[in-house]
Write a structure and sequence with these properties.
The chain is an alpha/beta fold. Helices cover 48% and strands 10% of the residues.
Length: 660
């Protein structure tokens, strides 16, 4: 009887056409196999779990035990919470807590990288070293540290002490505020949103959203901006810069992506998460001669290391390690049966991975003290002895290979793209070794060959067709001469679609295509993991400093989008771009009620205050239309709305120049 009830429940579960869930052929193939194998994934759970409509609109408050209080999104001012909180206060508090959680995630990651940097500089950790001393000096100079005639260790110690203020300072301005264009910084000072220290801003954000504290949506939003900026120009920027200093600054490299990078005759190890030090040590372990020999004794041809999600994006741009897929493919790849170990650290790790891994006898190994998963194996990673962890992971993977029982099915799909466009390389690529500069980029925006620049970033989400919105949006943008910068899971979506190769320039408009073909670059520049959105901020600042495109980031013909976002980190990233002056549009759903003061404030009034502003749309072509319209408005305000025709010089023109 119990079995009959169980079967009845199973029959009631909805099934949808897998081709409606994803545009990724490899993922679709594995979802078909998962159904045959009776294995549940996030897509199944999403189909069978309707989102709470009140919570989705952020019309629910559960910050005290007088509630939870549920307001009516259709008639938002019909009632208030038990304490009297209005819909605007409730939405602003919920939004603020999302910003705080997202900022905490990136900031904690950044602080871990800074701790590692300190220990390396002081000689307490021997497994890592400073790989890019030039980047070290450049970062130090950018915040006023003297470098002339000084030893690298002395500069590094000063840099550590200065960047530590990013987290612990209680008054003043965070160090990287010195990188912000002057007019943008003046706007922040006028509005009182220059970050002091991340710990203080996050603490104050949570305090203000406690029951009975800040009860004005505009004042709460002010602290949202300050907290988010402490991430974008603080925690995230520190994480990116320190990672470059320790592990090398990315430069373009051709890389294979998608599930075809797995090899049936090899021990396959996947690293998934966000902290690059784990992956850097794993690279050492999989190349350890004794472990390679052990894998061959087990019958393998060798050890195959691949990445997923943002950990994969980190080493993708630094080492050319193959990448198997983005966030929504992390369960599907286990269904291949070919993964011998998936090793994870922090952020964007689905708890459902444990059950899928168990179905195929794959080791799911957690490594970070912040992230344990019930049913997974925990092998803690310690930077002072990193290979104790990574060697053990390899040994377990070899054991699983030797005892494989799962049926192997690897989608034979690989895509090749070029990634690793750090802001330093963009400057070099455009200006050459002797005159590295953003001048050619600015000039080509001014003359109209490039219409503007878009950052298309963020997650993938099972509530929309995987990768579809990312790909169609970017196709429309580049067709309209908009240069696209990419980070995180969005970058992998575009790589699978073939848009990160120089050959993709044929899909661009005539102006962007001409620039891409001249430089030899793709129309879509992959620049790293989600924490590397800070590279986009630095690039925008460089464009302002180069001149000709306004005096602040808000003046630039640029726009940002996270069309398939899903995490609190994404909301925080969006808010720090908005606070920096960038028009930012999100897809899927936005946690807000229409026709409210709070929506008007963040969708309109922030822009009137000299910042950027939010927007929302689901359809990729509508998102593109809104972004292009904003870029065109900025071009008009700058007086460059009409593209200039290129005039070729004849011999008489050249003689006139020579005579002058």
């Amino acid at each position: 009887m119990a079995e009959e009830k169980k079967n009845a429940v199973i029959k009631k579960k909805k099934e949808v056409n897998i081709r409606d869930l994803t545009t990724c052929d490899a993922t679709a193939q594995m979802l078909e196999k998962a159904r045959r194998d009776g294995v549940e994934t996030a897509w199944d759970r999403a189909v069978n779990m309707k989102p709470c409509p009140i919570g989705a609109d952020s019309a629910c408050c559960k910050h005290c035990s007088m509630g939870p209080c549920r307001l009516n999104a259709k008639d938002p001012y019909a009632k208030v919470g038990v304490c009297g909180a209005t819909i605007d206060t409730i939405m602003a508090r919920n939004f603020g807590r999302m910003v705080a959680a997202g900022a905490a995630a990136h900031t904690d990651h950044g602080m871990s990288m800074l701790d590692l940097f300190r220990e390396v500089v002081n000689g307490n950790i021997q497994d890592y070293k400073i790989k890019d001393p030039i980047k070290l000096e450049e970062v130090a100079q950018s915040i006023g540290i003297e470098i002339e005639g000084r030893a690298i260790k002395d500069i590094a110690n000063d840099l550590y002490e200065e960047l530590e203020r990013t987290y612990t300072q209680v008054e003043g301005e965070i160090p990287f505020a010195q990188r912000v264009p002057q007019k943008t910084l003046e706007t922040w000072r006028k509005l009182g949103i220059v970050p002091r220290g991340a710990m203080r801003e996050i603490m104050e954000m949570i305090h203000r959203t406690h029951m009975g504290v800040d009860q004005h949506y505009a004042n709460i939003t002010k602290q949202c901006s300050r907290t988010a900026l402490a991430d974008g120009w603080g925690g995230s920027m520190v994480a990116t810069e320190i990672s470059d200093i320790l592990f090398g600054t990315p430069s373009p490299i051709s890389i294979e992506v998608n599930m075809g990078v797995l090899k049936e005759d090899h021990v396959n190890i996947i690293i998934h998460g966000h902290e690059p030090n784990l992956f850097e040590s794993m690279i050492e372990s999989v190349n350890e001669s004794t472990l390679v020999e052990e894998s061959k004794k087990a019958g393998a041809m060798g050890i195959n290391l691949v990445g997923m999600c943002c950990s994969g994006a980190e080493v993708l741009v630094r080492h050319g390690i193959p990448h198997a897929g983005n966030f929504m493919s992390t369960e599907a790849i286990l269904v291949t049966g070919a993964v011998d170990a998936m090793c994870v650290d922090v952020q964007c790790i689905k708890q459902g991975l444990a059950k899928v891994a168990d179905c195929y006898g794959t080791y799911l190994i957690t490594t970070n003290p912040r992230c344990h998963i019930e049913g997974a194996t925990h092998i803690e990673f310690h930077e002072h002895e990193p290979k104790e962890c990574t060697d053990e992971v390899v040994i377990k993977a070899i054991t699983r290979f030797k005892n494989r029982t799962a049926k192997i099915e690897i989608p034979q799909i690989k895509n090749i793209g070029v990634h690793g466009f750090s802001h330093e390389y963009i400057r070099y690529m455009l200006g050459g070794s002797f005159r590295t500069s953003y001048r050619p980029l600015n000039d080509n925006i001014i003359n109209g060959r490039i219409r503007g620049v878009a950052g298309v970033v963020g997650c993938t989400n099972p509530r929309v067709k995987q990768d579809y919105v990312h790909v169609e949006l970017v196709k429309e943008l580049i067709k309209n001469d908009v240069l696209v910068l990419q980070t995180g899971c969005s970058q992998i979506a575009l790589a699978k679609a073939g848009l990160t190769s120089p050959e993709a320039a044929v899909l661009a408009g005539p102006g962007l295509r001409e620039v891409c073909e001249t430089v030899g670059m793709p129309p879509v520049l992959g620049i790293g993991s989600c924490v590397d959105n800070s590279r986009i901020l630095i690039a925008a600042s460089e464009m302002v400093r180069e001149g000709g495109l306004g005096d602040s980031i808000a003046d630039l013909p640029v726009a940002g989008a996270a069309p398939e976002w899903m995490s609190e980190k994404a909301i925080c990233i969006g808010q720090y771009f908005v606070a920096s002056g960038v028009y930012t549009i999100f897809g899927v759903h936005f946690p807000i009620v229409d026709n409210t003061k709070f929506k008007k404030h963040i969708f309109e009034e922030l822009g009137d205050m000299g910042l950027g502003k939010w927007d929302f749309a689901k359809d990729p072509l509508e998102i593109a239309r809104l972004m292009i319209a904003h870029i065109d408005n900025r071009r008009k305000a700058l007086g460059i709305d009409k593209a200039r025709e290129r005039v070729l010089m004849d011999m008489s023109d050249r003689r006139d120049i020579d005579a002058a």
